[in-house]
Write a structure and sequence with these properties.
With 64 residues, the chain is α+β, with helices and mostly antiparallel strands. The protein has one domain. It is 41% helix and 20% strand. The chain has helices at 5-9, 16-23, 27-35, 60-63; strands at residues 12-15, 37-39, 42-44, 57-59. The two termini are 24 Å apart.
Amino acid sequence: MEETSAELLNRPVYGMSQAARLLGLRTDGLRRWIDGYERRGKAYAPVIRERSTGVDTVTWGEFV
């Protein structure tokens, strides 16, 4: 059974720390970009994901 392009983009491929290492970034910085964060009671939306999921894996589409 072949996967569609959308299924391939949504396939989890790396943990957050492994993706950060491959990209030459700090893990906490990558996590903020991918999943957003909260600081001093203010929420900052994710840049990569549509909404925060709390999932610690990075999909192929998010990585590229």
